[in-house]
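Sequence in, structure out. Go.
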Amino acid sequence: MKVAVLDIKGKDTGRKADLSDAVYKIEPNNHAIYLDVKQYLAHQRQGTHKSKERAEIVGSTRKIKKQKGTGTARAGSIKSPVFRGGGRIFGPQPRDYGQKVNKNVKRLARKSALSIKQQEKAILVVEDFQFEQPKTKDFVDILKSLGIENKKSLFVLGDTNNNVYLSSRNLEGSEVVTNTELSTYKILNANNIVLLEGALEGIESNLNK
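Output:
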């Protein structure tokens, strides 16, 4: 599948990029996408929630009232869960929410996500570019030239480029990743995917193992 390569001004360079049908033109597998996105979101949870149980409450151990004759229920400790300030029954405890997803399923999910974006005509291929220094204005100019300044965008680089990353960091709707950091969630969460030429080979290599 041939796709036009644009420059940072949004103009056609006259060159074509060859996108593999095995990555960008498959029948999307919705269940694989569901599993991969579910794992990604689960890994975002810190799992540090914690409430104190009865044994962890600091308080008096004195029996708070006599056993009989009060007309109310028996009560032996102020730390009981039935009293305000007492321990919590079956409260949340620290845990790992991580889930395991087979590597082949993850690759299938990412190829499915890319194929969906290609069907939506939401993938742009742009020639590699560099910034001499981090500058948000320069990155915004590229977004405007490509016509995606008011949309969520995901830029995929071939290699780490600190100046490009820092230039985009203050923009809420844009994210910059390398081809090895590409995830199903990030692909689907963006309105437009901007693939730099230098990332194409790495993406296809990672997803066709």
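Check: Residues 6 and 102 are 36 Å apart (CA to CA). The longest helix spans residues 103-119.
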